[in-house]
Structure formats: C-alpha cells, structure tokens
Amino acid sequence: MHSLRVDLGQRSYPIHIGTGILADPALFAPILNKGPVAIVTDDNVAPLYLETLQQTLKALHKAPLVITLPAGEASKSLDNIQEITGLLLNAGYGRDCTLCALGGGVVGDIAGFAAAVYQRGVSYIQVPTTLLAMVDSSVGGKTGVNHPLGKNMIGAFYQPRAVIADTDTLDSLPDREFRSGLAEVIKYGLINDQGFFSWLEDHMDAVLARAADALVKVIGHSCKDKAEVVARDELEGGLRAILNLGHTFGHAIEAATGYGRYLHGEAVAIGMVMAADLSRRLDLIRESEQNRIYALIKGAGLPTLAPALPPADYLRFMRVDKKAESGQVRFILLRGIGSAVITGDVPPAAVLQTLQAFM
Ligand code: NAD
Ligand code: ZN
C-alpha cells in the first residue's frame, strides 16, 4: 500500500492506495466518527463492491445505511441532495455520522456535497472506484451537483476525512472509462511533473494492462501532483487553474457535441493536443515537445481530433466557459513538458489555426 497526505493544515487528510484495501478494517477504524455510517453509491458499483465495504464496516460494528443512486451524470442533482439528506434524517443520523462515497466522480461529488450541507457539515470518506475519481475528483475537496443551467454550478469546497483507493476495483472498469481517466494522469505530467511524463512514456504498456504496481505508481503520483497544487491554492484563487490544462478546448468540444459523444477525459485529451499546438505556435514549446505530447496521448488510446464543426461553434462555447473572465478566454499553456502557465493574452488568429489543425 502507498500512502500520502494532502497538506491543508487543520483539514489535512490521508490518501491510501493499494490492492484489496477496501477489505481492511484497520484502515477505516481511525477515520470513522463515533456515530453511524451511510454509504452512497450507484447501481453499477453496488453489485460489485458494496458487499465488501459493508463487511469491512460490520467488522467495526457499524451497520451502514445504504443509499444507491442510478448510475450517471443525471444523478448529480439537487433533488438527490434532498433525497439523501431526507434518508439521513429519517434514520436519525446526527452530526457525528460519516458518509462514505463508494463510486466514481458522480457519487463522490454528490456525497461530498451532501456531507458539506447535512446539518452544516458532517465527515465523509472518498472511496473512488474509477480511475478519474482516484486521480482527480476524490482529491481536492470540490463537491457539488449540476443545475439545469450549468454543470457543477451548485457546490462547496469541502475536504474529505480520507481517500481510500482500492486499485482492485479498477478491474471491472470499462476500457473507455479507464483511458478517459488516463487523460487527467497525463495532464499532471504535463503541468508540473516532467519526470512523471517520461515515466509514462516508458511504462504505458504496463499502465494499459492495469498491472497492479503500475496503477499504484500512476495513482500515487497523480494524487501527489494534484495535492501539491491544491495545498498551494485550495480555493482556486489562481494557481489551481493550471489543473484545467486542455479543459478550455475540452469543455468546448463536450458542449459543441452536445455532451455524451465524448467522455470528459477524451475531450480533455483532444484539448491537451490543442493546447500543446497553441503553445508551439506561440513559441513556448518546441515541435519535438509537441510531438512527444501527441504521441503519449495517442499511445494511451485517446482521441486527438475534434469533429469538424464551424470554428465559431467552438469559440462560442470557449467564451461561455466559466474560466473566461471579463469576456476574455483564459488559456492554460505549456512552457515545456512539466511547466504550465495561465494566460489571457492569446491572439485569436492562433486559436483559430489550432482549432482548424485538429479537426
Ligand atoms: P462516473 O461516476 O459516472 O463513473 C463512470 C461510470 O463507471 C458510471 O457508469 C459508473 O457507474 C461506472 N463505474 C464506477 N466504478 C466502476 C467500477 N469500478 N467498475 C465498473 N463500472 C464502474 O464518472 P467519473 O468519470 O468517475 O466522474 C465524472 C464526474 O466527476 C463528473 O460529474 C465530473 O463533473 C466530476 N469531476 C469532479 C471533479 C472534482 O474535483 N470534484 C474533478 C473531475 C471530475
Ligand atoms: Zn477534467
């Protein structure tokens, strides 16, 4: 097992990564409050891993309330916050309870937000079961739900008590979901970890084969990189925005294609290819670096081209992206592999050329 900490002073917490750790009561014992436990999960994950987590909690004399949501993004709604908090109230859960989010980013985001608002805040534990949730959504304390007018528009920064990432749960993850999570992994190498990027170039076969030791390395390294950025800028005052590399283009691709055509990580992969191209056009990186980035993303089985739509369609969505401040689109660009910069100062003609080059 590999353990690390997210260092946020009073709100610091551990991340444990390893095989079979979902079944280890000793890991859960120190992170549970004295009150009862509720597990929030979805109906894909429940048949696979709920029993194991229940057994672990039973060994600690907890008989958890189980709340199972339909799998999918539509479950991230305020209605379900009402539902979850209603079930907790009916069960008589007080402020000393603990929520466990067992599932992907959808479950993590909604359970975390429920924990943030239930009785003004109760403790929660992230038990991520997708690669994306292990390397991204379970770390950093962004929680929330969607509003009909916008994704993630209602939420809170609220840190978990711990993250327990059992890599065995990734065995059942569909290939496309796994590769989509890899896009965020590659992102960490690009924004602040050149050594990790090189390691990924050398070990992509083992990663794609989901070799246990490669997974622990990938998840541990990604969490460390994200934790470092979060520790320096918990509430996204500035630096944390570098985590959005590839996301300005990526969100526009998701929106312009009506969501659903691309998984988030797939759109981010294309977005990172575009961000690298734009960085090279602005002479921030060399062509050889751009080629390495392209090769790694393609080698991970991720898409590198966006659908050929009128560029104006993409540009419109880039302007409404919430990263656009005072009408100016902000880009996260690269100064090299392992070094990102945030800039609003990008010639529109260069953005257009980049869009046209990758569709
Ligand atoms: P998800 O939670 O929808 O999971 C993807 C699919 O895989 C679902 O159908 C789920 O039921 C299934 N699944 C989960 N674990 C499985 C397993 N072990 N085996 C088989 N199937 C499994 O999606 P996701 O990609 O994990 O997360 C996406 C969500 O995360 C989005 O809502 C996004 O907004 C959010 N997110 C949040 C943050 C953050 O910082 N809070 C960061 C990135 C993304
Ligand atoms: Zn993302």
From TrEMBL:
Superkingdom per UniProt: Bacteria
Statement: the UniProt record of this protein carries the keyword Lyase: yes
Record EC number: 4.2.3.4
Protein keywords: Lyase
Protein name: 3-dehydroquinate synthase
Organism, as annotated: Acidithiobacillus ferrianus
Underlying gene: aroB
